[in-house]
Amino acid sequence: MEDKQPKVNSEEVIRAVSRELIEFLLRHPDTKKIKLTAIKCKIGKKHGFINVIKDSVVRSYATPEEQEKLELILRRRLTRTLSGVTIVAVMTAPAPAGSKSCPGNCLFCPGESSQPDVKVAQSYTGREPAAMRSAMYHYDPYEQTLHRLEDLAAIGHHPDKIELIIMGGTFLYFPRTYQEDFVKGCYDAIINFREPNYNDGKRTTSLQVAIEKLETAKTRLIGLTFETRPDYCFEEHVDRMLELGATRVEIGIQSTREDLLSFSRRNHTVADNKRAIQVAKDAGLKVNAHIMPNLPLSSPETDIEVFRELFRDPEFRPDMMKLYPCLVVKGTDLYNMYLSGEYEPYSQEKVIQVLMQIKTELPPYVRIQRIQRDIPVDLIKAGVKNSNLRQIIQTRLLAEGKHCNCIRCREEGFYAQKRSQTREHVDLSGVKFEDFTYAASGGEEHFLSFEDHDRRMLIGYLRLRFLSPKAHRPEVCDQRVAIVREIRVVGEIVGHDSIPRQGQIQHRGYGKELMQNAEEIARQHGCTKLLVIAGIGARPYFYNLGYSFDGVYVAKKI
């Protein structure tokens, strides 16, 4: 019996469908993405096309001029790059048998101990998208990074400026050789991506060589983030992160209450939380605090008070937050407490009410990076199961005439998106400079920004810090030194060597003006030198502004 060969589309049919679709979209640029599949099916059926044509195939038949116009129409998951960068997340390997990738033993934490049959780093289930990608590539940092960049390019994003996030366990708890090898593998992939021979998998000879090459790579690494615990974010740990190229640290603070931390077996104290934040800030790192409402022994009222303490007490005041309501995952000790009736999570409505209250009280210098863990619903035995919790909260706030004051909700791209505007229609004529000053971790912070007149839309911002007396780095021990911990112009990514199109706000001088204002404020405070903690690929930008390499920073005499 003759085997049936699968039907394939001919080159002629593929071209015909692609060209007709391109011409249709150029005539109708406001086509909604939700209708795009139906349009593809209709055009495909007309030409006898099998299945639904992929966007990446359609793009290959467009001229360079057409591709630029099609970019926003065909690009999937626009929010991935609306903040001015592309996020690339990779995950470390599970710890070898008999060992752990984290020193903690938390009640609620999934991972190696709770799921012994699943190869995954501590605090993850193995079913998160990043975890599944890491397993697919056998936890190889090079392969994970390279294929993630390819995936993003395939759905229409241009990974020109990227932030790398290394997830899984407590990275600073891993052996130093593993830390260095993992980071170097990621760096090699970024260097090779967009090179003609990147499939050769050529590697650099050392981490230092990789760092040197990254400065001028076609894909620019503008930030590196590590996940860690407060007790692994002290001086020696922060120094190690800086050696590896870090610009931001995510710290599992979880709560400001000693009793909640102790009962959850966090094995660190509130004092550890405060010390970790201070050490990181004084070294120039941005601080992203992981906070967990609905912990055992807590209540909605306590959770709201915990968040108020985070910003009322100057020893906390993180730059960013991830809000992860406590979830019950099978195999954890918390799951056993739930089965025995010792723990009962809030209803979804109570969680929503708590988070809505929090979002309306946030100061303008904070960015909520994420709400809700990315855990598949079938693994959540109790707790909020909606992965779109952030969107639910945002919709409720708008319906009640309220708004969130966090950076993300005010960023130009998200601001326009919430109001169903295209970026071409956003009015930038009323943008003005602001300086929000506050005490934090023994020092003084200036949140410099360009915003509209009512401070509802944010164009760009900079974090300038005057250090605490406890600052430990040799580059910053002189009190006549200030440090820029972050500078960001938001909105759609414009390539580092590209000219902005209409509606794009990067590369229009906002960043340079923010730096000039930071230098002037530093001079007024009696400083003679300004440091910047710059992502490796962002260093050339600062070299052009008169800065030079200084330890792990770039610096300029002012």
What are the key terms here?
16 strands; alpha/beta; Aminopeptidase; 3 domains; 19 helices
Protein described:
- The chain is of the alpha/beta class and 558 residues long.
- The chain has three domains: 11-74, no CATH class; 78-384, pyruvate-formate lyase- activating enzyme, CATH 3.80.30; 413-557, Gcn5-related N-acetyltransferase (GNAT) (Aminopeptidase), CATH 3.40.630.
- It contains 19 helices and 16 strands.
- The protein has helices at residues 11-27, 33-47, 55-60, 64-74, 129-136, 141-154, 176-192, 207-214, 235-244, 258-263, 270-282, 300-312, 333-339, 348-361, 389-399, 407-410, 412-418, 510-524, 539-543, and strands at 86-91, 161-167, 220-228, 248-254, 286-291, 320-323, 328-329, 367-371, 380-382, 432-440, 443-451, 458-466, 481-489, 529-532, 548-550, 553-557.
- The chain has a seven-stranded parallel β-sheet. Strands 10-11-12-13-14-16-15 form a seven-stranded mixed β-sheet. A two-stranded antiparallel sheet has the order 7-9.
- A hairpin with a 2-residue loop joins strand 15 (548-550) and strand 16.
